[in-house]
Design goal:
The complex is a heterotrimer. By secondary structure, chain A is of the alpha/beta class. Chain A is built from eleven helices and ten strands. Chain C has helices at 45-52, 75-79, 98-108, 113-126, 142-155, 172-188, 200-204, 223-227, 242-252, 264-277, and strands spanning 3-12, 22-30, 34-38, 60-65, 68-69, 82-85, 160-164, 192-196, 208-213, 216-221. The chains are: A alpha/beta, B mainly alpha, C alpha/beta.
């Protein structure tokens, strides 16, 4: 199924017409292509989490409309019409281990598929498969999720979303609080999943390195407005613009900029990943260097 | 996002806002007690004038008070109807089985309605103009005499203030967990009673677990910051009883005396 | 320099767990030193911090803080020399608003109200949060809450500050703000700092890095020595510094790279030299 996402002048206001009114999204128009790996970046309070909650109808726009696959969400859309959509859009919230509640790991993973109409057997089968997918050992499946370590609980929660077999996977800082090893494993796992199952992935993150390493499309939000949208190359091409908006470069880009500043050598294109940086350096070493 | 109005406190700088929480708490109780002394239209009129004056002084939008009545409207109507149909006296207009519609019944019904409205308005005024913590403080101060009979007043008040501080945090947490479970296909507030009860489990279990974790973290943090019981602690927050508090109290005492004169004995 | 903390033959075991968390563990931390403790999740870092603060009691061995042996009798006195900031910003905010939270520790220490007013203001100004004095926690970001927690620590004028993964739940800006304050405290007031962390930037600011693995001290050295372990660092719970990763990439492309650890600046200089020789 083709599941592109299109926002058409979407606005969202919390507690409208009260003294506490707060505009969280302002005239957002953007398209998230099917099969893309889209990163959503922006500061705390930029509207990221509000944006994310529109992706499966947890929030409906105050005005404007959102098209996700065949579903059109407008301010008038009824809750009942959104159940079908939620099946197709899996959201892994920040610190998703907070959603665990079942007696066993297996039951918790099987929870969503059961809610979406699978029978006990089918749901359990999917749950087993997803547990393997996220690297949970067989002997953990019948334990209580609350007996596991933090990293394992995170995996259970993620498996619980994957078990919905969504076409669109939304990840809200999925590696927050994990140690570097856990972080790396998790990001690689999502990458593999995306390729294997042809998912559309939407990643909300503060880590510019993850944006450079994994994403092919970037959405930048600031104060509820869309201020940039394009490939990482395009977004990170103007270090000055980034500084103005208090956004960082990926480490490799930062290194390259500092290198250019200090030495006067120029990179062909600003490298964003370590491997890109390294290969450009090697090329410069072997091929002689353009000074300028 | 969409922070819940805890106790629906609305910050402001009116005279009522600036009054000491102790005097406001005492006066609210006092007023609720004297409402029960009113028994004719003159006395209710007096109390309404006092209430409206207080509300105007506080400069809070009147719609908040109407909203305060709304959730209780069925309880109020039920009580009013009981009064109307089951109290008798005076001219009887209509009678059917145990139900009578009499002059006194109607008058009593109206009085009961007024009583409810007055109590709700006054207590709403208290919570709209006083931060929850101030109320907790006032309670602590007013409970002080209980220390003599070994009631742990300090601990109770610290517990109360921590509980109040965590209400928005837990509300936030609830929203987050509800969002997560709705994304997993749970429909809150839909279906029959059994389905609704079933839907609550995926919300309550995580909420309990996270609250316990928080409590443990908080206890550790408090211990690390040197908390070892309420004894011997000094206090950062102080309250001053000012001339406006004395004036406020005097005003209500005068109202009380007038009420004694105009009520029917 | 004088030892601020000395841990001698420490053993500890959680009652609900089978294995020993620490077995005959020794460590000395000097006054005014900034020590980073790293290790993967579950390596015993936080347990060590809690033992130092007397929040847990060792089953064997002794801990000396500022020359005094930690005992159940003097734990409150010893603890007053130590300020701790924990991981979750929400779960250590006790007060109803910012200033009251900073005052909480002072109230516990029975500081007079006049003194409290002075110290609360002073410490909030130090962390740039004075203008938020009357804000409730719900209106603060995680980074702001951690700065308030830090102000609460500063107000008590401790000799030691322990950061127990205090920046791990913050965004990069919040993290930087917290670390800037810590650096200033360490430099100007000679406070002893122990930071438990996964963050490479945080660890690189320390003068000394201790690597823990299952309660065992597997390395105790200058940051640059520890960082030169390269990709091996991932195993012990730390992301290799960028320059090390770049070195690895260059090496795999056939370039001969220096063996010693280079900072980013050192790396730039080395490359510059390499280019100039061409």
């Amino acid at each position: 199924m083709v599941m592109g996402i299109i926002f058409k002048t979407v606005n969202y206001t919390y507690q409208p017409s009260t003294p506490f009114e707060q505009k969280a999204l302002k005239n957002i128009s953007v398209e998230i292509p099917t099969g893309s790996y889209t990163a959503v970046i922006g500061h705390t309070g930029s509207g990221k989490s509000t944006f994310l909650q529109h992706l499966n109808g947890l929030l409906r726009p105050s005005s404007g409309e959102i098209v996700i696959g065949k579903q059109i969400i407008t301010p008038e859309t009824k809750n009942k019409e959104l159940g079908e959509l939620r099946k197709h859009v899996g959201i892994v919230f920040q610190f998703p281990e907070a959603q665990l509640f079942e007696e066993t790991v297996l039951k918790d993973i099987a929870f969503a598929p059961k809610n979406f109409g699978k029978n006990e057997e089918e749901a359990t089968a999917i749950a087993r498969q997803m547990a393997r997918q996220v690297g949970l050992k067989e002997e953990l499946l019948l334990k209580s999720p609350f007996e596991l370590s933090g990293g394992q609980m995170r995996r259970v929660a993620i498996a619980g979303i994957l078990a919905m077999e969504p076409e669109i996977l939304v990840l809200d800082e999925p590696t927050a609080g994990l140690d570097p090893k856990g972080r790396l494993e998790m990001m690689e796992m999502f990458k593999e999943l995306k390729e294997k199952q042809n998912l559309t992935v939407i990643l909300v993150t503060h880590q510019m390195d993850d944006v450079a390493n994994y994403a092919d499309n970037v959405i930048v939000l600031e104060n509820g407005r869309l201020i940039a949208n394009g490939s990482p190359k395009k977004i990170f091409a103007q270090p000055k613009w980034l500084i103005e908006h208090h956004l960082a470069l990926p480490k490799a880009g930062e290194f390259a900029v500092n290198f250019e500043k200090k030495t006067g050598y120029k990179f062909e294109t600003l490298p964003l990943t370590e491997s890109d940086l390294a290969s450009q350096i090697v090329k410069m070493v072997h091929g002689g260097v353009q000074n300028g | 996002m969409g922070k819940v109005l805890l106790g629906r406190y609305i910050p402001g700088s009116s005279l009522v806002h600036r009054m000491d929480s102790r005097s406001k708490l005492i006066l609210s109780f006092f007023f609720i007690v004297i409402i029960f002394l009113a028994n004719n239209w003159e006395s209710y009129l007096l109390l309404f004038i006092v209430t409206i004056t207080s509300i105007l002084t506080a400069r809070v939008n009147f719609s908040f008070f109407i909203k305060g009545v709304r959730p209780l409207i069925w309880l109020i109507l039920f009580t009013v109807l009981l009064q109307i149909f089951f109290s008798s006296g005076g001219t009887v207009f209509w009678k059917w089985g145990p139900f009578t519609l009499s002059y006194y019944g109607i008058v009593n019904g109206i009085y009961v309605f007024c009583r409810f409205v007055l109590i709700i308005f006054m207590s709403t005024l208290l919570t709209l103009t006083t931060a929850p913590l101030e109320i907790a403080d006032a309670l602590e101060k007013l409970m002080m005499p209980l220390k003599r009979i070994k009631v742990p007043v300090y601990e109770i008040s610290l517990m109360l203030s921590i509980a109040l501080r965590f209400v928005p945090t837990l509300m936030d947490e609830t929203t987050k967990i509800m969002n997560a479970q709705r994304s997993r296909g749970v429909n809150f507030g839909e279906g029959n009673i059994m389905q609704q009860i079933k839907a609550v489990v995926p919300l309550l279990v995580p909420l309990f677990v996270s609250s316990f974790n928080r409590a443990e973290d908080l206890a550790t943090a408090m211990e690390a910051r040197g908390y070892h019981g309420g004894e011997g602690r000094t206090k950062y927050r102080v309250h001053y009883w000012e001339i406006r508090d004395t004036l406020g109290c005097t005003f209500f005492v005068v109202v009380f005396i007038i009420l004694l004169f105009i009520r029917q004995w | 320099m004088v030892d601020m903390i000395e841990i001698k033959n420490l053993s500890f075991k959680y009652s609900q767990q089978d294995g020993q968390t620490f077995n005959d563990f020794n460590l000395k931390i000097k006054q005014g030193e900034w020590l980073a403790i790293i290790g993967h999740n579950g390596s015993g870092k936080s347990t060590l911090a809690r033992l130092i603060d007397g929040l847990l009691a060792p089953s064997e061995g002794a801990i000396f803080i500022d020359g005094i042996k930690l005992t159940p009798e003097n734990v409150w006195d010893v603890r007053s020399k130590i300020g701790m900031v924990f991981q979750n910003p929400d779960n250590q905010f006790v007060g109803a608003n910012v200033e009251e939270d900073v005052a909480f520790g002072l109230e516990n220490a029975a500081v007079s109200r006049e003194q409290m007013l002075v110290r609360v203001k002073e410490s909030l100004q130090r962390v740039n949060m004075w203008e938020f004095a009357s804000h409730e926690p719900a209106r603060l970001s995680g980074g702001q809450k951690q700065r308030v927690a830090l102000a609460g620590v500063i107000a008590l004028r401790p000799k030691i500050i322990i950061l127990d993964e205090a920046t791990s739940m913050l965004d990069p800006e919040g993290r930087k703000a917290v670390l800037d304050i810590i650096r200033e405290l360490n430099h100007k007031e000679k406070l002893t700092v122990i930071s438990i962390t996964h963050d490479i930037d945080e660890a690189s600011k320390a003068q000394r890095v201790v690597v823990l693995d299952d309660g065992k001290l597997i390395q105790d050295d200058k940051p640059e020595k520890v960082f030169s372990r390269g990709s091996d660092l991932v195993k012990i719970g730390l992301e290799p510094p960028f320059s090390e990763k770049l070195k690895g990439e260059l090496e795999s492309l056939g370039l001969v790279v220096p063996e010693d650890y280079l900072t980013e600046e050192g790396m730039i200089n080395w490359l510059w030299e390499l280019f100039s020789r061409q």
